């Protein structure tokens, strides 16, 4: 019932040859797929590392806000006929500085983020309404288009990922300490304002490049879901970061592979697989969690 014939039938349905080596050779003949895998891997590693701190600092709303703040910049870039990634970077980084300046502590930034987010969405809507070109440009911002990444954008992505990872490594220990307990870190005299600004810029840049894979509307699938899953699988920060990176790379690679043989978008498969892994981990933990046995007190005579 579940033998080789079923595998062949499923492979035929998705357009995938049961011979994995043949499929990989066919896929890697195309330069756009090579670029997509290279950029997707770099972005998944960056998102896995920075996403861990986003989840640890309970700043998931911040990651989502940066994607929509960058949306305004990307829409403006399309309007004036320059690369959307340039507008994404400019908009996200400026938004990061604005949010960091409006609220010093991460726990007090929800209101400030909401204010900047609403204004940025309004700007993005205005720029898109003024744009008279093809709708594919706007679609790629909203849902990602990693398969269309150019050679120049690929080099920019890899260089930026290396730079951001290097900065994260330099401030790793103080950032981890401040993320675990802001009150104690502040009492120890750590530069909380400086760390907050640097962290915001790191997240802004990470989100800008992750948008190329998942788009503005599905940014959580790479920036939050792998890190949230990793926190259920490991308690030590280094191990959780490694698992977060592994999940991000896994869902990105498999999403690219499946989408090559199907007419469906990459971002859908990445989002669905990341969510499926998260749900599976939660269900397994729930099933393995020891249940409390009710204690029956003896009845007094």
Question: Would you mind describing this structure in some detail?
Answer:
With 301 residues, this protein is mainly alpha-helical. The chain has a single domain (14-285), classed as Orthogonal Bundle (ABC transporter involved in vitamin B12 uptake, BtuC). Helix content is 77%, strand content 0%. The chain is built from 15 helices and no strands. It has helices spanning 4-14, 20-27, 31-56, 60-79, 84-102, 110-130, 135-143, 151-170, 172-180, 182-187, 192-214, 220-223, 225-233, 237-260, 266-288. The protein is globular, with a radius of gyration of 22 Å.
Content of β-strand: under 5%
CATH topology title: ABC transporter involved in vitamin B12 uptake, BtuC
Alpha-carbon distance between the two ends: 62 Å
The computed structural class is: mainly alpha
Number of strands: 0
**Name of the CATH class:** Mainly Alpha
Estimate the mean pLDDT confidence: 77
Proportion in helices = over 70%
CATH architecture: Orthogonal Bundle
What summary fits the major beta sheet?
Answer: none
Rg from alpha-carbon coordinates:
22 Å
| N to C succession of SSEs | HHHHHHHHHHHHHHH
Poorly predicted tracts of residues: 1-10
Continuous helix count = 15
**CATH superfamily assignment?**
ABC transporter involved in vitamin B12 uptake, BtuC
Give the SSE map.
Layout: H1 4-14, H2 20-27, H3 31-56, H4 60-79, H5 84-102, H6 110-130, H7 135-143, H8 151-170, H9 172-180, H10 182-187, H11 192-214, H12 220-223, H13 225-233, H14 237-260, H15 266-288
Give a quick precis of the structure:
The chain has helices spanning 4-14, 20-27, 31-56, 60-79, 84-102, 110-130, 135-143, 151-170, 172-180, 182-187, 192-214, 220-223, 225-233, 237-260, 266-288.
């Amino acid at each position: 019932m579940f033998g080789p014939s079923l595998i062949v039938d499923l492979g035929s349905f998705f357009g995938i040859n049961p011979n994995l080596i043949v499929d990989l050779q066919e896929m890697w003949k195309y330069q756009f797929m090579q670029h997509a895998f290279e950029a997707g891997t770099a972005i998944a590693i960056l998102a896995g590392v920075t996403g861990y701190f986003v989840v640890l600092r309970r700043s998931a709303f911040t990651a989502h806000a940066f994607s929509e703040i960058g949306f305004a910049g990307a829409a403006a870039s399309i309007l004036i006929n320059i690369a959307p990634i340039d507008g994404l970077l400019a908009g996200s980084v400026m938004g990061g500085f604005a949010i960091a300046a409006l609220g010093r502590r991460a726990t007090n930034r929800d209101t400030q983020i909401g204010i900047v987010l609403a204004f940025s969405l309004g700007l993005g809507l205005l720029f898109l309404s003024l744009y008279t070109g093809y709708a594919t440009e706007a679609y790629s911002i909203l849902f990602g288009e990693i398969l269309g990444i150019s050679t120049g954008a690929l080099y920019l992505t890899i260089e930026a990922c290396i730079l951001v990872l290097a900065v994260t490594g330099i401030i790793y220990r103080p950032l981890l300490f401040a993320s675990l307990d802001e009150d104690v870190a502040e009492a120890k005299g750590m530069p909380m304002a400086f760390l907050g600004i640097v962290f915001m810029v790191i997240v802004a840049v990470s989100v800008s490049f992750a948008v190329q894979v998942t788009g503005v509307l599905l940014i959580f699938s790479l920036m939050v879901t792998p890190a949230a899953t990793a926190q259920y699988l490991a308690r030590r920060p280094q191990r959780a970061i490694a698992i977060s990176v592994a999940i991000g790379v896994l869902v990105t690679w498999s999403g690219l592979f499946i989408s090559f043989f199907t007419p469906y978008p990459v971002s859908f498969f990445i989002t669905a697989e990341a969510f499926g892994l998260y749900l599976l981990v939660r269900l397994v933990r729930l099933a393995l969690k020891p249940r409390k046995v009710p204690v029956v007190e003896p009845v007094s005579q």
